[in-house]
Amino acid sequence: MSENVGTATVIVDKTANAAPLGFTGLGLAAVLLSLSYIGVYPVESMIVSMAIFLGGFAQVFAGIMCWKKGDVFAGTAFSAFGLFWFSLAGLLIMPAIGWAEASSGTAMAAYLFIWGVYTFVMLIVTMKIGVRALQFVFVTLFLLFILLAVVNATGSTGLLVIAGYVGLVMGLGALYTALGMVMNEIHGKTVIPL
């Protein structure tokens, strides 16, 4: 009588943490767009291109990879904010090529306010996660969306400059978070506190 002995195959997921890519996409896109709000340069093709590739593709890709690893927060946040960047690029491109009328200030204020509400809800979730750098990014991102909503509702150029500086700080915070995640993982210890 022969016995059939089964073997088990163990699959080990060696997929890297994609969150640093997501924070890099957010940080670089936000810094570059915020510099245009401050008045360093006008909104031009570089802004649209970075919105699509840095903000959009990098964050959606990071979101999918985080989702694959079972990180529902990062998967949801990066995917949603990546899609935000795609929609922002669409709002800039479609009127320029004649596919749609440019959005009114009121419509843009509503668009940005809704994103602010979503960001606030995600900010609440970061309180449970407890990573201070992550909380900083979401607090400043929430403030940025609300400021930009008010700018679009009122047309205030002075407030746009303030929003630009808030966006610059948020973007640098996102880049700090990305760098910290990479450095800490590479060194196997906390090199950059998050």
Automatic annotation (TrEMBL):
* Recorded superkingdom: Archaea
Q: Where in the cell is it found?
A: Membrane
Keyword Magnesium found: no
Show the GO cellular component annotation of the record.
plasma membrane
TM regions (residue ranges): 21-40, 46-66, 78-100, 106-126, 133-153, 159-179
Q: In what way does this protein cross or attach to the membrane? A: Multi-pass membrane protein
Matches recorded under InterPro entries:
Gpr1/Fun34/SatP-like, SatP
Q: Does the keyword Nuclease apply?
A: no
Q: Which Pfam families match?
A: Gpr1_Fun34_YaaH
User: Which keywords describe this protein according to UniProt?
Assistant: Membrane, Transmembrane, Transmembrane helix
Q: GO molecular function: any one?
A: acetate:proton symporter activity
Question: Could you say which protein family the record assigns here?
Answer: Belongs to the acetate uptake transporter (AceTr) (TC 2.A.96) family.
Q: What is this protein called?
A: GPR1/FUN34/yaaH family protein
- Origin organism is Methanosarcina barkeri 3
